[in-house]
Amino acid sequence: MSEQLPKIYESETIERQANEIWSSRQYFHAEPHADGKNGKAYTIVIPPPNVTAPLHLGHALNNTLQDIPIRFRRMQKYNTLWMPGTDHAGIATQTVVEKRILSEESRRRTDFKREEFVGRVQAWKDEYEARIIEQLKAMGCSCDWQRTRFTMDKVCAKAVRSAFFKLFKDGLIYRGKRLVNWDPATQTVLADDEVEHETVQGHFWYMRYPLVEPVDINSQQFEHVTVATTRPETMLGDTAVAMNPSDKRAKYLIGKKVRLPIVGRIIPIIADEHVVLPDPDSEDEKAKFSTGFLKVTPAHDPDDWAIGERHELQVINVMAPDGSISDKYGWEDVREPEAQSLLGMDRFEAREAIVEWFRKEKLLEDVREYVHEVGHSYRSHVPIEPYLSDQWYIAVKKPIDHLSEKFGEGLIDGTDVPVNSLAGLALAPLLDSRLRFIPERYAKTYQSWLENLRDWPISRQLWWGHRIPIWSKSGAEEQLQSELSKFANKVHSVTMDSDDGSITYISVGSGHEDVERQIEADDWTRDEDVLDTWFSSALWPFSTMGWPEDTPELKTFYPGDVLCTAREIITLWEAAPM
Q: Which of 86, 319, 429, 527 is the most exposed, having the fewest neighbouring CB atoms within 10 Å of its CB?
């Protein structure tokens, strides 16, 4: 008698049977062509899910969309590879683990030794990576499970070290002190594309700064100038007040000085065309709210930073990395009792205290409601703080000399992007139609981002991630170069000036652990920071296949055919200039 089929579809039974059949043989496994040539190959690398949590409905949709062309090409007898894996997601994973430990054990990251805390994050990663892989299998994803990769496994770590060393040797990785997007909650720098802008109901506070000497303007005596600001707490770091030179009052006030309230600092009034002229009837929001006087705080605002550079203004950082008011990071003239009373306050507590002080001293002229965009951290969701900090950067638009012969020189038409720069190498495939977006409108997102890209800050003040392979030591350059000569081509060094004198930085090539042990024995200090997660993710399409080794997998399956990702990571992953 034939087997009776059930009247109702039993998904659990059928799916289990299907998975047993699929896993009984290597149906999903792909081997490179024997001759190492691409041939009839078809490749998709999975956008590696973060090990922060289990997969959600969006992952189900995205992986279904990838599985369809993979199975279609497999049935057409293509040598088909769907590369699976997971991403360590540095800031996101560290944040969720820190929150879990704090809620369950009332302990913070700093209560652990670095290795111990990383071990706790590793345990989290192991748990959720296993769950993620099981979810993908349960969905029926036909990935090549034998090739599962992780962005911090040995294969990918070797690629990260090799890429870093090459970029450092090419002069594309450098250290710079500049204003960055700072997350006070996680206490790390963020790249521009990790900042989410939210509409906030805020205020403009109109604060009077007394002139050191009163000024007569058309028979009217001016005893103060009024600045308007949405962030009163930053006034503690003001080093100038700026006016537009076209302002009718400018000829009387430029060159005069004001006494900064609370702090007592004497600062100049300067001329700069960046300042918006006041016009209460204008449709321009900035002109409508402007007084014509701009407080300039180079250490806490990107526009003010640019003004400060033009006028060589003093740069005074009045905050600690956690966003509290501090005199430990560059604020040295904390003399007045009112200023000292603010030390240790959270930035928003200090805002309230400063506004109240101005009100009591009859220096608060007005308060007006103002709706504006405020940058927030894409992970902690707190307002970011423009913050002066030393970071490692990648020069994304710097021409790479040794690529000139292959890619040429000069700028891509209509842009300031050199063809032989990292941004140029990422943009060129779109412009010559080798890269195509579906829907097409997202090509504009990709192109615009690369054309306007600034140097990428790649260091993160975290413990979980690829530790930056840089060691440093202070001292005379000649002496340190002599000390390094024994390592030949295994290291590359750069000497830079700093506030503490000359510092030599070295990077060690991949696979030279003996050199690392030797330089640490010689008192070279390793950088504490880790690399931005997207540094390793940018290498994912080829690091997973064994690069920098010239593997058969690379020859057969790289470059891939399709990337299927969410639109919000076009700038983070697809446009990563690596």
A: 429
